[in-house]
């Protein structure tokens, strides 16, 4: 007999969180009754190739709690891939993602679920963020930039604690470190995005896996999202506009060079440093454009062959694929769950 699908799936990516796992398991266990009654909630832990006892401790917890599912990846694929794995192996019509370091508070989830009744994505806002200035300052600048470029205004894109309706996540495949941009994808697909304040606790164990060094990754991801969202079906507009502009500048420069020779009979000898600057800038633009083309190709490669961005090593308490697919079919064919917006 196929077990009834839960209403809510809590997805928790974990990487080298050995010290926090016991408290994480206890805290989530204490919060489950407020999230839903027995059988309405499942918790999917994804061990993203940890090198410590994270999987062992999660396995022990799964042996005591049948609603806990544990997936172990073969190596560290990154937070986005781990989150995608948890989503793929979850069954709930509502999916809530949170970090494993207990800086997110599971006690905020019931309020997020209530807010989700009015929208499709609820994004957490760590207004009183318990991190150092070197993490908060670049994050604030990035949030303002992302909001302005994307048109989806949020105070805290980096907060993992978010609640989603399943259709929002199944409409997009996650690559790279794109999990923070899911609200943008949802809005572009016609979804409603809301934001609410959530608690944020100081980190008690271990060290953060993210630092100021990932700022450039955020900028590159934003460029990719903007390109895919606005030009994925008409890339010639993205490449053509600057291309025409550069060709025009080049022709004007050539004309000025020829006129200089005809009128004054002299050759302009540009400085070597200025030539180097132009060359390096042009080369940098070419690398960015090649990167965007590579993003399109890698998506085609994975989606055309049905390849995942992760590889599962072993699992605990996991419902098999046939049962998951059956439950998903029930949800999308008129069973429990909100209806996705119509497509045209």
Overview features:
single chain, elongated, eight-stranded mixed beta sheet, disordered C terminus, alpha/beta, Spore Coat Polysaccharide Biosynthesis Protein SpsA, Chain A, 11 helices, 2 domains, 344 residues
Q: Helices, strands, pairings?
A:
Blueprint: E1 8-14, H1 21-35, E2 41-47, H2 54-64, E3 68-73, H3 79-88, E4 94-97, H4 109-116, E5 121-125, H5 133-150, E6 162-165, H6 166-170, H7 182-188, E7 193-197, H8 215-231, H9 235-264, H10 272-305, E8 312-316, H11 321-332
Parallel strand pairs: 1-2, 1-4, 2-3, 5-7
Antiparallel strand pairs: 3-8, 4-6, 5-6
Helix pairs in contact: 5-8
Number of strands: 8
Helix coverage percent:
40-55%
Instruction: Characterize the main sheet.
Output: 8 strands, mixed
Q: Helical segment tally?
A: 11
**At CATH's second level, what is the architecture of the largest domain?**
Alpha-Beta Complex
- The total tally of domains equals 2
Low-confidence stretches: 329-344
Give the class-level CATH name of the largest domain. Alpha Beta
How do the helices and strands follow one another from N- to C-terminus?
Answer: EHEHEHEHEHEHHEHHHEH
| Radius of gyration over all CA atoms, rounded | 24 Å
Question: If you consult CATH, what is the topology of the largest domain?
Answer: Spore Coat Polysaccharide Biosynthesis Protein SpsA, Chain A
Structural class: alpha/beta
End-to-end Cα distance? 37 Å
Global outline: elongated
